Amino acid sequence: MSFFKSVYEAVKLIPKGRVATYGDIARYVGSPRAARVVGYALHVNPEPNAIPCHRVVNREGRLAPSFAFGGMEVQKALLEAENVEVSDDGYVDLAKYGFKFA
DNA sequence: TATTTGACGATTT
DNA sequence: CAAATCGCCAAAT
What we know:
single chain, mainly alpha, 40% helix, DNA-binding
């Protein structure tokens, strides 16, 4: 079980209508400081079909400022499609939609 | 085998 | 209050 594999599993565990932060995922897989590795793992995204990266946000509750997998418009559409309120900048309310891993 | 990089996070200036 | 820097971890080259 590679670190990346665990990350993918964790992302798949995010329920619809919820978003998780890189830090939470890193913590879930066992390396609380490996948030960057989580981001890198999603960057590779070997299974875009099963890995809803739009559902993964940074600690601010927003997608990566340096990169948008296809445009924040797409992200906004995907998240809103799951009943998640998204600000015009792509911000989500972590207090309401922030998913907490077991 | 070693070095560099990278969807982050927290702290300091 | 906002921007820049340092620190961590694992993978890729």
